[in-house]
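User: Reviewer 2 asked us to show a designed sequence for the structure in our supplementary figure. I'm pasting the structure tokens here. Could you produce the per-position amino acids so we can include them in the response letter?
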């Protein structure tokens, strides 16, 4: 994910992204994932947290 991806997020996705902990936001940005909807972000976060718990 890069700056243009952040700008292309729909309002619900941006609000959700802004509410995430800084470490998770950094992980999303560094991943390069194309996440534009809240559902995409929720799925990514769920997977990231599940992988972290293993």
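Assistant: Here is a per-position design you can include in the supplement:
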């Amino acid at each position: 994910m890069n700056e243009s991806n952040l700008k292309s997020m729909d309002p619900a996705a941006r609000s959700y992204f802004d509410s995430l902990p800084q470490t998770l936001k950094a992980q999303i940005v560094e991943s390069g994932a194309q996440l534009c909807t809240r559902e995409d972000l929720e799925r990514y976060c769920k997977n990231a947290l599940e992988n972290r718990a293993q």
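For the response letter, you might also mention the following. Residues 3-53 form one domain. The mean pLDDT is 90.
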